[in-house]
Amino acid sequence: MTEIYIEISKLTDKFRTMAYGLTTDENKINEAVQELMLYLLQANPEVIRSIYEKDGILGITRYGAVALRRALTSTRSSFYYKFDKYYTRIDNYSSTITYDVLETGEVIPNRNLYNLPNEEIDHTHNKNLHKLELIDDQLDKLDNWYDREIFKLYYSGETLDSLAKKTKISRNSLFTTIDKVRTIIKNELNEDV
């Protein structure tokens, strides 16, 4: 498997070139290619091995190209949520900063990214964090580890279809388990989750 990973590491420049067809932002390209490499390293080794044995490095390149295209174009990709959405919000905020003029004539920004958390407390965010902590507590109290882990996997961003493929558990069984855990948590917390 090590030789396959060595071959994959040699594809970095090729993937970077492919990414230029989707965006010209150098930082975004570097982040996306780095995420792709991490994705390939964390992927199921048997899947990577079978692709490599069937089509060689060309198969890995095609597989990586599809993953890279999804990362850079889909708003449902993990890359979008980790990087693109986060940095877009920061850029939008930084462009709305207003300035105060002091009596001395000095112009200063009245808000900046460094003191933002100290200036305002987002109470809705704190309430959501509190709810998430309550849900985690309820998950820890579940007797069945299987139910708990399936629920965590689903809410970490997996779809039922992708979860079914990875775990080899039927989609209907996964849905039943997730729905059962959701109902338990709702009953315990006496509210909608």
Give a brief description.
The chain folds into 2 domains: 2-73; 121-189. It has helices at residues 2-9, 12-20, 26-42, 45-73, 78-94, 116-119, 123-141, 145-155, 160-167, 171-189, and strands spanning 99-101, 107-109. It is mainly α and 193 residues long.
Summarize the structure in words.
The protein folds into 2 domains: 72 residues; 69 residues. It is mainly α and 193 residues long. It has a two-stranded antiparallel sheet. Helix content is 73%, strand content 3%.
What would you report as the Rg, rounded to the nearest angstrom?
Answer: 23 Å
Tertiary shape: flat
**In terms of quaternary structure, what is this?**
single chain
Strand order in the largest sheet:
1-2
User: Which regions have little confidence, pLDDT < 50, spanning 5+ residues?
Assistant: 90-96, 112-122
| H/I helix tally | 10
What would the average pLDDT be, to the nearest integer?
77
Reported for the largest beta sheet, the result is:
2 strands, antiparallel
Number of strands: 2
The H-and-E topology, N to C, reads as HHHHHEEHHHHH
> Span from first to last CA?
42 Å
Structural class estimated from helices and strands: mainly alpha
Helix content: over 70%
Structural domain count: 2
Strand content: under 5%
